[in-house]
Amino acid sequence: MASDEQDVQTTTSPRDSSEPSEGILKTIMGLRGLDISQESLFDFELPPGSTEWPLSPYGPQSPHLQYAKGRRSARDKRCSAVASPARPIKARKPKRSTSAKRKAEPRQDHGPLPPRDEPLHLLNLPGELRDIIYDILCLRKDQLYAQLRPTLQKEGRHLRKILRRHPTEPILALVNKQLRREVLSVFYGANSFVFRRSNETLLEKYSMTNPIHLARFMTPATCFIRKVELKFEAKGGLGIQFHFSHKLRKSQAEVVTISHDLAKTYCSCLEDNAVAETLAEGNTSGVGRDLVGLASLLSIQRQNKLDGVAHKDQLEGGMYKLPTARCVLCHRANLAHVSAGM
């Protein structure tokens, strides 16, 4: 027994920490009374001609030796056990031959290209052809209603309200100075412009018969306008509302005429006096050639005369009510209410 205990103690002596599984195996074999260095004996013999086991039955290289598994780290536990798919293998392109490339040669010799003409510019065309092009781009079949439309324009972090003129000028007028003068002379000179108070809610306070808004509509190019029509509201004796117009015309000889279409059954003394004073003041002030400027002067003259002989009736939308039913000078019927265009 003493020898057995001594064998157990010798077999259970600790080995190097680098081979922990071999020490465990020796302990187990020592408890069974065996030595790991001894070869295992079997109770049968191998038949002749059989091959021997190429490896040692026990030891560090034995396939029966089970090595202890280490603990998984926290990072390995978080990682998925599913292996990532392998990247597909790209087929290699065959190497190009190192032989010199042949230069491209034309299949057919066409000879030299014929000389091209110089590019044709719009300003190089004759004036008659340019006028035809401008007529196509600028002429309108119907009358153009002048407006000042409020819009919001962004300036930095803030929005600013501005008034834009309508109708807008043709885009061709933005090319250069010569085209601008030629295009706008056709656009303003051939079309007829109407100035009146709009019935739209957003444009109600931007009446185009107001002298202030007429002055804002003026530009250096509006001197080409040859047809302007100012429309005013009025009410007759029976309370029927209608419109009458002041038509301003400029001939080819730069002669300006102003006429109105107020019915002859009503007194037109106030309108006639306003027209005469407008023409006289336009010639002296230098705005006689600009019909928009003359329209602004005419609106001011009517406003001043109505302030002197009538009073505003707020129940009728600010229209002026004349004091008498008939005119003292011409003895014709006065309008019940007439608008000054503000």
UniProtKB/TrEMBL annotation:
InterPro entries: AN11006-like. It comes from the Eukaryota. Residues 1-23, 43-119 are annotated as: Disordered. Residues 102-119 have a biased composition (Basic and acidic residues). Residues 89-101 have a biased composition (Basic residues). This is F-box domain-containing protein.
